[in-house]
Amino acid sequence: MNKHILIALFLVITGILHSQTIVNSGAKINVPSGTYLIFKNLNNSGDNASFYYNTNISVSGNWTNVSPAVFSNGANGAVTFNGSEVQTIQSGGSSFKTLSINNSAAASHAIVLSDDLSIATQLNLTDGVINTAGNKVIFLDGSATTTGSMNSFIDGNVQKNGSTAFTFPVGNITQRDLDGDSNPENYVVWAPFAATPASSASVQVHYKFSNEGMPDWWEHGGNMDTDLHHVSDREHWVVNSPVNLTSVTLYWKNNAHALGEICIHSLCAGDDSDYDPADLSLTYYDGMWVDLGGTAQGNHNEGYISSGPIPFSSKGTKVVTFGSKNDIDPLPVELVSFSSICHNETVLLEWQTASEINSAYFVIEKSLNAIDFEEIGRIPAAGNSNELLYYNFTDLRNEHTAKYYRLKTVDIDGSFEYSNSLVAYCYEVSNPVVMVYPNPFRDILYIKGENMNGEQSQVLIYDMLGKLLYAEKLDNSYGSFGTEIHLGHLCPAMYAVKVVCSDFTQTIKIDKH
To answer: For the chain, how many structural domains are there in total?
Structure first.
């Protein structure tokens, strides 16, 4: 019996008895075929460290491989992440041959990447959403994947190498206020994207259930093909490719809803019988919105639309989404922008709309605690318009504290909806000011600092027992910083945000719902 196998047998015994961490620092571990190995975490590091497995391995904790350490597998080697809490993966440059995700964690993101994750043969998505956390899932040439499900997809950037057709199992977990009650809801959206490159290339796709970063989605000044009325601002795919894509397919999944409820992919305005597949089109942005047409397949609840080609220059990027030809499928046009400007001890509020249908007036509401709002003014609306319109209102009362504003859009029939709220701090002071909102929050927390007296600020988030959960250092630009933090994986509870800058420290309690 050689040394490598003895090491494997030792690991079997310690793993079964304790289900603890395998810590390998510089040694060579060999797990042969047929070995039954149970452990929770792997930590593989050191100049000559290697972890070789030729059997099925189940991991309930974290996988940490620190380069130049490597891991590899034989013909029978496969790894399944099947924890019941959030698991992290650090590949350190090594690739998985066959990887399965079957994580039952209740958190929105079950798997979080610390660096790029590469798949050589197969990725099986059974349960648990992968959060790339700014990294990539890379499918090497010849690899494959299941298309995922509502319970398991990749949230972030996905890359496929090679020349074959491929379906990217992408989706997004985010918060949006689509029902207009000024209280953002959680959305878990699975939206695969299929593409065929004209030749071998590395194609990247990132799906976003958002309109942030999108080009103008309403028609004005020839920014849209004449066959299009508008495109969707509900969702989009950001696609990067060095070669043309000969065909592209956009999918909508799990779109069923009760009468009058929100249609996730906005193929109707609450009544799915109004969905018209003939009105739907596949579009991409290339200085203007280009109509690729296509014939929608499936139905309102689940379907797809295919067309092509989409031309790409070297390392080109395109935004791809659904289009409406005759404004039958709503693909809603929401409030374009809502912002504030500090001006001569007043607060100037400005907003834009891309289209209005039966709108009567806007109510401007204000709060000093982000919870209790009161009306401070009204502005007449256009009624009906398909043009970009600008509105403004000046709040003459400038309290020396953070102020929160929201718009209430009222229709002719009395129905109304709210915009997201914004925060403004318009007062010249020399002391640092920290704003944390919304509070209570759900998944996303915004933190802003002004008049900070150092080059950098540090944001720390603790639980009520003092355990550090999040840390970020931010450069102060002219004494200010701002950050958006995704905390969907935290359980509903009270937490504390601590901001430190030079000799300034402030702690604010936050409530996660």
So the answer is: 4
Distance between CA atoms of 481 and 458, rounded to whole angstroms?
A: 10
CB-side neighbour CA atoms (13 Å) of 471? 3
pTM (predicted TM-score): 0.68
Tens-place pLDDT, residues 389-437: 889 999 998 887 888 898 988 888 777 777 777 888 776 656 788 888 7
Domain that holds residue 447: 433-511
- What is the enclosing helix (H) or strand (E) of 8? helix 3-18
Say how far apart CA 135 and CA 155 lie, in whole Å.
10
In this structure, the answer to whether residues 263 and 403 fall within a common structural domain is no
pLDDT in tens, 475-504: 988 788 988 898 888 888 889 999 999 889
The pLDDT tens digits for 198-245 are 999 999 999 999 988 888 777 666 788 988 988 998 999 999 999 999
Whether residue 432 has a cis bond before it, omega within 30° of 0: no
Token duo for residue 359 = 């709108």
CATH classification at residue 498: 2.60.40.1930
**What tokens were used for 422?**
């914004």
- The answer to whether the CB of 437 falls within 8 A of the CB of 511 is no
